């Protein structure tokens, strides 16, 4: 009987001792406290130093998902980027790297790579082409003019080209599972600017409407006009060039691209007629400007030559000409 009383007396004491030890081991003050932004920077740096990214021409790095893991100060960051195929240098693979950061250290990495989805849109599109045959949640570049920036009740603006518009979001991009994309700076951006927006066309969801376009980058192209004729212009690889020239289609004259000496280096993306300060189609008889967008696809040089002509007139000297040498670095 005494033994039973002793055991009954000791059990609560042992439970208290055990509980105290468990609480002490779980004291969060013993963990290395880090915030999500610091952890993301650690993950960013890790991916950029990966063998696959450094040695196989990694580019177009994009953070596509951020999740809070079930451990103290843990976040999982999923990245996608393009890389040269390890099997064939002429092939571009799409790589995915998921980085788990715990207490400021990378503790797990999952990597995979494969050929890019053939259904993904190729090259840079205008808004009309983007919406004509929409492909959702695939990375694509779209060019156009900025409108309604700072005038809408959202971190967004409208992008116009090809006679169509799309609403571009640069903040508050939240998926249905509450994960989100980081905001994109619009500092220095003004209505009327021509830009290249890289991002994804979205389906409808809890926090978005059908055909919202979520931006991952917003860039201004290198811009030249008539005053740059006859000069050399440098453009970085995978960036864009915008050539802006006075035009009045009501006279029958339009600019025509007579020569692009190296289309493998410099590729024509598209051209638009616009009127300064206007996004909507202009009234008849109004003059404006033609904007020609080119993409730098490979390192090298290309000469472009343009002429201002009536296309139906034969053996007639052009009213104006324009030429430029583009160096892609």
Write the layout of secondary structure elements.
Elements: H1 2-25, H2 36-49, H3 51-55, E1 59-68, E2 74-84, E3 92-102, E4 105-115, E5 124-126, H4 127-132, E6 139-147, E7 156-161, E8 164-169, E9 173-174, E10 180-181, E11 194-201, E12 213-219, E13 222-224, E14 232-235, E15 240-247, E16 254-260, E17 266-274, E18 288-296, E19 300-309, E20 320-328
Parallel strand pairs: 5-6, 8-12, 13-15, 14-20
Antiparallel strand pairs: 1-2, 2-3, 3-4, 6-7, 6-11, 7-8, 9-10, 11-12, 15-18, 16-19, 17-18, 19-20
Entry keywords:
globular; 44% strand; 15% helix; 4-stranded antiparallel sheet; OB fold (Dihydrolipoamide Acetyltransferase, E2P); disordered N terminus; Chagasin family peptidase inhibitor I42; Immunoglobulin-like; Nuclear Transport Factor 2, Chain: A; 4 helices; 3 domains; 329 residues; mainly beta; 5-stranded mixed barrel
Number of strands: 20
Low-pLDDT sequence parts: 1-26
Q: Measure the end-to-end span.
A: 91 Å
Into how many domains do the coordinates divide? 3
Helical residue percent? 10-25%
Strand order of the largest sheet: 6-7-8-12-11
Q: Structural class from helices and strands?
A: mainly beta
Looking at the overall shape, the CATH architecture of the largest domain is: Sandwich
Mean pLDDT: 85
Let me know the largest β-sheet. Answer: 5 strands, mixed, barrel
In CATH, the topology of the largest domain is named Immunoglobulin-like
Radius of gyration: 28 Å
Name of the CATH first level of the largest domain: Mainly Beta
Q: How large a portion of the residues is in β-strands, by DSSP E?
A: 35-45%
Number of helices: 4
- Run of helices and strands: HHHEEEEEHEEEEEEEEEEEEEEE
What is the overall shape? globular
GO molecular function: cysteine-type endopeptidase inhibitor activity
Keywords: Protease inhibitor, Thiol protease inhibitor
InterPro entries: Chagasin-like_sf (IPR036331), Cys_protease_inhibitor_I42 (IPR052781), Prot_inh_I42_chagasin (IPR018990)
Domain Proteinase inhibitor I42 chagasin: 235-326
